[in-house]
Amino acid sequence: MYLTVEETAEYLSVSVKYVQNLILQGKIRVLYDEEGTALVYKEQFKTHFEQLEKYKKLVEDMENEPIPDDIDVKDED
After folding, report:
1. pLDDT reported for residue 45
2. Which of 31, 49, 26, 27 lies closest to 41, judged by CA?
């Protein structure tokens, strides 16, 4: 499925200008139709979202990890 630049910005939750800059930098691949409209293939972001989910899970796991007891604590008893 192909998206316009505006639809891509909404899909990625970023501004249209940012998407246009990524296109100019070659970080987002586009096709142009006969009218010159840039079309972005939606599936190229699949790995991005997969990596984002893995990162979110990693951060969540780190936040839920209990703090280990300090072995250098000296008991005054």
Report:
1. 87
2. 31
Each residue's pLDDT tens digit, 12-48: 889 999 999 999 999 999 999 999 999 999 988 888 8
Q: How far apart are CA 70 and CA 32, in angstroms?
A: 60
Whether the Cβ atoms of residue 42 and residue 10 lie closer than 8 Å to each other: no
- Residue 8 burial class via C-beta count within 10 angstroms: exposed 0-12, middle 13-18, buried 19 and up: buried
Q: What is the pTM of this model?
A: 0.65
3-state secondary structure of 75: coil
Calpha distance 25→71 (Å, rounded): 51
Sheet holding 30-32, edge to edge: 2-3, 38-41, 30-32
